[in-house]
Design goal:
This protein is α/β, with parallel strands linked by helices. The longest helix has 17 residues, at 239-255. Strand 6, helix 4 (132-144) and strand 7 (148-154) form a beta-alpha-beta unit. It has a single domain, classed as TIM Barrel. The protein has helices spanning 33-45, 61-69, 99-113, 132-144, 158-171, 194-201, 239-255, 259-269, 283-290, 299-309, 317-328, and strands at 3-5, 12-14, 17-19, 50-52, 78-83, 118-123, 148-154, 176-182, 204-208, 274-279. The chain contains eleven helices and ten strands. An eight-stranded parallel barrel has the order 3-4-5-6-7-8-9-10, surrounded by six helices. It has a two-stranded antiparallel sheet with strand order 1-2.
Length: 336
């Protein structure tokens, strides 16, 4: 496992992150405690050091399980959790990104995780009703109190993240060092605004669902794969989903790899800022996914995969590219 600093911080994190959303059996199919222990041990043995969870994962069981499993080795891991999601749907102040919910959520997470600080505290989703100034100041207070080391944001527009970090710079508050977003061959939206912003501002990108909810795992391209049952079924996938998954399978066959490894390697290889989050329910799944760290996709394979997605940057990016020769003439600076 290789390591990079997370964004512009000095925090060293492994190239692949362990997602703990599957830790616990509450609220549907998940992993029981013994399997979670085996997965964490396997991840650590592979050199992984960053774990991602949230206050709401498995109704809190994910944090509780991690608290138990990290006893005696907490300092060896970069531990991140999130807040925003409601802790009590009958209480209007038990959700959102305001100061009151931040304080209560952080204390709840620290208690469950059996620690006095988290390495990265993530805003789980943009809250339109809370001024971003309030959120940034409240996060900075948590950092100054020593309960949080770094802060990040998940699932928010690029303009919100940019404004938040501009405010942090002006006021001397702790800026976001990380951005958490979905990213896979089936969902490349972040390439329009979010990924360029993250690269420009020095944000690490932790990418969730690099297998597109399992659509790119090979389950739907192997003979005898699941046809019905579960959250994702063969019938729920679009024609485009099936077509991209087929190309992923073909590339995997050519390289002697698995479809999951190819899909994860593609996500990881798009930018040095990107760290895919691996979410597995069984040790065997995680072991297969971790092998993506040793897979380098040849340029021709990457091109084949990307062509299959039919993705376009669209306006204004395509318009600017098309009109630049006419607009700038001799003043246009070409690629280095």
């Amino acid at each position: 496992m290789r390591y990079r600093t997370l964004g512009a911080s000095g925090l060293r994190v492994s190239e692949l992150i362990l997602g703990a959303m599957t830790f616990g059996e509450q609220g549907g199919v998940g992993a029981p405690l013994p399997e979670c222990r085996r997965m964490l041990d396997l991840y650590a043995e592979a050199g992984g050091n960053m774990i991602d969870t949230a206050i709401n994962y498995r109704d809190g069981a994910s944090e509780q399980i991690l608290g138990e499993l990290l006893e005696g080795r907490r300092e060896s891991f970069v531990l991140g959790t999130k807040y925003t999601v409601s802790r009590d749907r009958a209480d209007p102040n038990a959700a959102g990104n305001h100061r009151k919910n931040l304080r209560a959520s952080l204390e709840t997470s620290l208690r469950r995780l059996r620690t006095d600080y988290v390495d990265v505290y993530w805003v789980h989703m943009w809250d339109r009703d809370t001024p971003i100034e309030e959120t940034m100041r409240a996060l900075d207070d948590a950092v100054r109190a020593g309960k949080v080391l770094y802060v990040g944001i998940s699932d928010a527009p690029a303009w919100v993240v940019s404004r938040a970090n501009a405010l942090a710079q002006w006021h001397g508050w702790s800026p976001f060092i990380g951005l958490q977003v979905p990213y896979s061959l089936l969902q490349r939206d972040i390439e329009r605004e979010l990924l360029p912003m993250a690269e420009s501002l020095g944000l690490g990108v932790t990418a969730w669902s690099p297998l597109a909810g399992g659509a790119l795992s090979g389950k739907y391209t192997r003979p005898g794969g699941p046809a019905t049952g579960g959250r994702l079924t063969a019938e729920s996938l679009s024609a485009r989903d099936h077509a991209v998954a087929r190309v992923v399978q073909d590339v995997a066959d050519d390289l002697g790899a698995t479809p999951a490894q190819v899909a994860i390697a593609w996500t990881a290889g798009r930018s040095r800022a990107v760290h895919p989050i691996l979410g597995a329910r069984r040790v065997e799944q995680l072991q297969d996914n971790l092998a993506a760290a040793d897979l380098t996709l040849p340029p021709e394979s990457r091109a084949r995969l990307e062509q299959a997605t039919g993705f376009a940057l669209e306006f204004p990016h395509d318009f600017i590219a098309q009109t630049s020769p006419w607009v700038f003439g001799a003043a246009r600076v070409g690629p280095n």
